[in-house]
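ok, trying the design again with the full structure, not the truncated one.
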């Protein structure tokens, strides 16, 4: 038959997860509402869709570009990498997952720290990358945040944390959970020194991140529509057996219930952060 070559000879063909390819980065981006935006236009609009105001999920590189003057900054503690003290293995070894994540994202771990000038004044920023194992917090993430706070203390520079994480990294077990106490203790020292700390929650900010440094800012702000909570909505619903309120665990819901100080549009992020710093440090407001 002429069209026999269209017929599948082998049934039940499956492609292993590790062999599946991500969609290559193209010339456009599609938002959850179905709007299609040119990638260059999206970048020029702070990675916010001009069609529906959707805040596209971005990483540390993009946040540094938004916050630091002329995208000039110095990365701190860049060469710290995770180990595998527990010799953890599920469907694959933790060491293999780390190598794959590093190769795919070109990152050492799920947070980057940098210092630079924002509207002419120095600022230390620690920004999480969800692309690296879901932005999960292991020992390296906790250590880099702790060192970032130490740098702020030693140099009397305000500190900003940008959270974007699924929570603690299960492959490091108690080593991961220890970072909650470690980072919180460091922030207490920052508070004693009267050095401002701004916490920005982005989509998503969940688990141990929410239970520690993400909610300890002198001012806690969030991007529009961000998922913020400890357990996810599905887990909460399954546990309680009750339907959840509309918009549950969105930044708008948390603002309404007093868990956030402000929701800040990404295009206004740099101005809002520096306005707060000027006010709290009692210095002239910069334009």
């Amino acid at each position: 038959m002429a069209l026999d070559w269209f017929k599948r000879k082998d049934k039940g063909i499956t492609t292993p997860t590790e062999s599946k390819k991500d969609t290559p980065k193209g010339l456009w981006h599609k938002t959850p509402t179905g709007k299609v935006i040119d990638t260059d236009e999206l970048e020029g609009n702070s990675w916010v869709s001009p069609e529906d105001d959707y805040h596209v999920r971005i990483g540390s590189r993009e946040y540094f570009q938004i916050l630091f003057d002329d995208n000039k900054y110095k990365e701190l503690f860049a060469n710290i990498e995770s180990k595998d003290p527990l010799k953890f293995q599920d469907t694959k070894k933790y060491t293999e997952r780390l190598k794959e994540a590093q190769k795919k994202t070109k990152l050492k771990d799920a947070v980057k720290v940098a210092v630079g000038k924002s509207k002419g004044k120095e600022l230390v920023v620690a920004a999480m990358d969800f692309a690296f194992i879901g932005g999960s917090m292991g020992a390296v993430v906790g250590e880099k945040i702790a060192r970032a706070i130490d740098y702020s203390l030693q140099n009397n520079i305000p500190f900003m944390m940008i959270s974007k994480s699924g929570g603690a990294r299960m492959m490091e077990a108690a080593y991961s959970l220890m970072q909650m106490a470690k980072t919180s203790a460091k922030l207490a020292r920052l508070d004693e020194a009267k050095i401002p700390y701004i916490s920005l929650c982005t989509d998503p900010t969940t688990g141990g991140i929410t239970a520690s440094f993400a909610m300890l800012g002198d001012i806690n702000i969030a991007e529009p529509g961000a998922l913020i909570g400890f357990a996810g909505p599905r887990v909460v619903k399954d546990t309680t057996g009750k339907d959840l309120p509309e918009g549950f665990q969105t930044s708008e819901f948390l603002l309404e219930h007093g868990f956030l100080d402000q929701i800040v549009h990404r295009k206004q992020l740099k101005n809002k952060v520096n306005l707060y710093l000027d006010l709290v440090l009692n210095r002239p407001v910069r334009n």
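Keeping the full-length input from now on. The mean pLDDT is 91.
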